[in-house]
């Protein structure tokens, strides 16, 4: 699959504050973003944003109801901004979603089709949330997938481990940021 994009998902200030364990997550993610840009791979940011008053949140959706009660995800709030350590550049695309998957309530599919992108590299917070949901939807859309294991983060390290070691490898290439950067570097060199 020749046309790839790096998806940087839900790396928003409030989410990073909750999930970042001090393990160097943001610098690793920054390295992946910089490497993608250097290789000419588009970087697409995905954020969750809910309208003020949250008309799109059903009380049957436990995750969003709890998030709203905790004061999270309202569009325009400072906590919904993409973390400044990995902020988008002028040519990057930012997609707003309304649910767990990057595809839910967003125009991501339209953006991918318009750019003829048929392969995604997934990074983001949380592994058990946006990464899992997006991966499942992308499979149904016949999109090629790579998961950057150390550019994904979850509040539960065991859940992250099980997903990235047992489940995701059934559907996607699961690699480290370093291995992915080496692969795209070799691919770029081969084209010269």
How is the topology of this model organized?
Elements: E1 4-9, H1 13-19, H2 25-38, E2 43-48, H3 62-69, E3 93-97, H4 108-114, E4 119-125, H5 127-140, E5 144-153, H6 157-167, E6 173-175, H7 177-191
Parallel strand pairs: 1-2, 1-4, 2-3, 4-5, 5-6
Helix pairs in contact: 2-7
Name its key features.
6 strands; six-stranded parallel sheet; Rossmann fold; alpha/beta; 40% helix
Description of the molecule:
The protein has one domain: Rossmann fold. The chain is built from seven helices and six strands, in the order βααβαβαβαβαβα. The protein has helices at 13-19, 25-38, 62-69, 108-114, 127-140, 157-167, 177-191; strands at residues 4-9, 43-48, 93-97, 119-125, 144-153, 173-175. It has a six-stranded parallel sheet, sandwiched between helices. β4, α5 (127-140) and β5 form a beta-alpha-beta unit. α2 (25-38) packs parallel to α7. The protein is globular.
SS-based structural class? alpha/beta
Strand content: 15-25%
Using only C-alpha atoms, the radius of gyration works out to 16 Å
Query: What's the level 1 CATH class?
Result: Alpha Beta
CATH superfamily name? Isochorismatase-like
Shape: globular
- The low-confidence runs, each spanning 5 or more residues with pLDDT under 50, are none
